[in-house]
């Protein structure tokens, strides 16, 4: 006989988590790993994940440093460098390397590389045996000032970038400025786009500082770079602490990214993310002014700093306003049917609309404005 009484149990999981972690920034940190990683609750065994280019330059040094700090590198999983390898296939390959080595939950993952390695290694750590610890060793400027902080991990699919992933916070971030010495100049420039973004969205004094120290930035002066990385991590961490899951405030980190992502797609990923974000900021600052949110004098200062960093002008990229508007649709899908932008209201502060920081701009409104900005 069927029993139609409803039985119910409750699974109570009201947890308080402390995912806090330190970010260490300095020159030559590998020699101090023992003290930096002490008390981080890391097991003895490590899986070192990197890409071929980074590993060739810095892998052996990290391997030796980890050994000297008392850790045992059980496996090295090194995949081909490049965004095109930020895939499910690469993740499965890394996982198989760890599984073949019979690594259990008493393992942590060391992610040595730029944003691609950090996102891939972090996401692998998030799901391997339902989650093991990881530590970020960022080696690009972009990774030091942006991707290594905040706990977003993931990979790309043919349907779009970063669509599969998890929030998984690292146990520590070790930004050794020495890594920047081998970084190709175009990659340094790409990282500077996010640096300028952080200044515009949150810190007017930092914006002035960047203008003043530009010659030292250009030659990667270690003291200046240390300050820049420190300030950037502080800005990003400050945002993430208040809104880890991007319910509102975290959206401000997307300045320059709505049109930046459209440009990345338009250029079929031949342009670096940072370059596209820089041009995206040029457009979005002008758009903010056209919408009456930002003073023309501030737009000028933003454009001037982007010029100083050597970024292309909006007209240097062959893409029509109509194409751009069309390509913001994937962002639109991601945000519930509306194209959302975030706009500065002045250098160092972001505008808020009725729905918070995300401001909707319809295609019919965006199109003529973008046409005007391009035609200038
Ligand atoms: N998780 C986040 O919050 C977040 C934020 C921003 C960007 N990202 C992601 O980050 C990725 C871009 O990161 P990236 O710009 O660091 O790219 P990347 O990791 O591909 O590195 C760029 C290139 O530089 C090489 N390289 C790295 N460090 C080097 C060094 N020290 N010396 C010489 N060569 C070096 C790499 O092998 C690669 O060829 C994208 O996939 C993006 O989606 C994630
Ligand atoms: Zn970015």
Question: Can you walk me through this structure?
Answer:
Helices cover 47% and strands 16% of the residues. It contains 15 helices and 12 strands. The strands form 4 sheets. The protein has a 6-stranded parallel β-sheet with strand order 1-8-5-4-2-3. Helix 2 links the parallel strand 2 (45-51) and strand 3 (72-79). The longest helix has 21 residues, at 222-242. The N and C termini lie far apart (78 Å). Nicotinamide-adenine-dinucleotide (NAD) binds at residues 51, 53-54, 57, 81-83, 86, 113-117, 119, 139-140, 142-143, 146-147, 150, 152, 161-162, 179, 182-183, 187, 190, 273.
Q: Which shape, going by the Cα principal axes?
A: globular
- What Rg is obtained from the alpha carbons, in whole angstroms? 22 Å
Bound small-molecule species:
nicotinamide-adenine-dinucleotide, zinc ion
Helix/strand/pairing class, anyone? Answer: alpha/beta
**Count of helical stretches:** 15
Query: Which sequence of SSEs, written as H and E, runs from N to C?
Result: EHEHEHEHEHEEEHHHHHHHHHEEEEH
Beta-strand segment tally: 12
**Average pLDDT level:** 94
Approximately how much beta-strand content do the residues carry?
Answer: 15-25%
Specify the biggest β-sheet: 6 strands, parallel
Helix content: 40-55%
Helix and strand topology:
Layout: E1 23-26, H1 33-37, E2 45-51, H2 52-68, E3 72-79, H3 88-100, E4 107-113, H4 115-127, E5 134-138, H5 141-147, E6 152-157, E7 160-167, E8 172-176, H6 185-202, H7 204-212, H8 214-218, H9 222-242, H10 257-266, H11 273-290, H12 296-308, H13 321-327, H14 329-334, E9 340-341, E10 344-346, E11 349-350, E12 359-360, H15 363-375
Parallel strand pairs: 1-8, 2-3, 2-4, 4-5, 5-8
Antiparallel strand pairs: 6-7, 9-12, 10-11
The structure holds nicotinamide-adenine-dinucleotide and zinc ion.
Zinc ion (ZN) is lined by residues 194, 257, 273, 277.
